[in-house]
# Entry
Amino acid sequence: MGSRVVSKAVLLLVVVALSAHIVLTALAYVPGVPTDSTPYIALPSYTLPSVVKPGGYFEVLVRAREELKVENAYIVGLKGAYNLGSGEVLGFKSLNVDPRYSMGVFALKFKVPEEAAPGLYNLILVSSAGRLWMPNSVLVDGGLDSKKCIMLAQLTDMHFGAEQGGYPNNFKHTRYVALINTLAERLGLDVVVYTGDLIDVGSDVRAYRDFFRVTSQILVPQLALPGNHDWAQVDDTRGFVEMYYGRYVNPLRVWNFTYGRFTFVSLDTRMAGYPEMWQLDTLESVVKSSQDKLVVLVFHHSFFNTAGSYKGGISDFRSYVHSAWRQSAEAEEVARRLLDIINKYSNIVAVLSGHIHRDADSIYERADGSKVYFITTVTSNHGYPEGYYWGMKVVEVCDDGGVRVLTPEGRKYTPTSGSINTEAFRVFEVTDAYNAAVSWVFNTTGFTEVNVRNTTLVFYLNKTVPLESYKLYGDTGRIHKIFSYDLGPYYLVKAYVDLTGSGSITMASYEDKAPPRIRVISTFPREPVLGRPLILVLEASDTGWGIKTVEAIVSLNGKPIARVEAQRMIEPTQFRLVYNIGEPGKYEISLRAVDFNGNIGETKLEYSVEAPRTETPTPTETPTPAETTKPIETPRETITTGELTTTETPAPPAAEKAGFPAQAILLALIIMLIVLAAALALKRRS
# Structure
């Protein structure tokens, strides 16, 4: 009887725990990660927001198979929350992506309340299909027309889903969340523009979700357009729009966005490296109808491949035009048409691009003397040519046509070096499975591009637990000020922090007392070899706040000789550790996973590495004269000179050089006698 009661109690606890897990999983906020199910908000997007004045209207396009009934809608941001009501149903319509493809969407119309404060807001729809939301997708315009200059941050070639420099690019990119949010408050950044290659392989859904999750934490309006990598391994426009880029970024290949006196127009240079002609028709139409605006043109493949000053037609500087724009007669025709539009409309003042992974700013001068600034920026996260680095660029555009690149204090701008070098700005975010614990780990030693004594960090927190249950851990003495906001699906905490040196700060709703677990997935080679690197792939998992570091303490013959930090891989729980075996002896490698509360999980490996064997050559015996000896074969000697290895064939023994051997002479005489005998026999028969 007692055992049955215990069994039932255990079963009840398991059910309760499982139910709590399911509820927590269902309600937990993971920033910017949408599900695969429809419907979803296609526009406005976190990378193409709607701009609307207080009291004005904006459309919401939902990708849905059937009519959507909205009970209520809200915009929620740092400036407050506003009820939009149930909105007006406009019904199904076609969203034209290009002349050959249209996507069906369900359209709704909402009015922003007159009292809405200017700012950036999340959009939330409470509908018959559940709650739909899109972060940072509605910008309430409280007087943008009064801005004579705007400041934008350009990032390009992010390559989410790839790994370089010891870190996955999606992990490295969280530093831009901290940097951009800091510059937004310090300099007044207005817009962030991503000029293509967001993802390394365009069919990598996981990478798109990571891009969504990371960039949705930036508190500035963002614009994005595709590059050739975003088209990689994507079969057609339908897949591009409905399954990959268009599903997780925004569905338009060509768009325009007006911010006060300035209009941004995007083109899609595709895998081909240049846009189709219909895109230039759209561009000219937008520019022609926006004569009262300054136009900033944005696309991925840079037009010029070298920084410089240019004027005239393409024939005047053809070799300086990027090869993508002159690879064929069609490409060159598109390039000429683009230049014709730029010459025709003086309200085009700047062109932003990337692709070449380096700074190469140029100036094009029209016949009337007016200038267009072609800004080409270094890669944010991925491979670059020698002498360059990972970074981003800050550009100011003014309504008098002036364009300038803002460089770090103390560093002079040059057309080939205008970006902020972010390589030493090692500021990374780590979360637990449910965003109930968010940590920032940093090491800014050597970073001088931007003052980090008052850096803005954001913590996007799970709302299934009360805000007051969250506590700060780690280097909390570095925090100057802290503010919290209820943003609908989640809490946002904004902290102003001194990030000089190294440290970490965690905000969590629970204490982390459990150590992480660590195990070896693979070793290469299986046994260490003297003079070769030992490569370990490790799995480090944690049920608490997350893994801070994975490292190895290497001991040789009982004496510690090295501490090696493992590098994160694309899979969040996997790490790679490389150590070069330089000496023979008995090795003990202590592998340690450390979480953000200092808990340690550990495992050990032991190896014996032997010194290479030195073989003693066997002496050659000298035969006595009475013995019959065989000729000694002369070995083939290998001679190494520099990097070239040649093999010399030795000369034959001296005895063989003196003349023909006796056996050969005797054989020749026998053959001659046989030939003579045969000839005599034939003569007798005849």
The two ends are 126 Å apart (CA to CA). Confidence is low (pLDDT under 50) at residues 1-33, 622-667, 682-686.
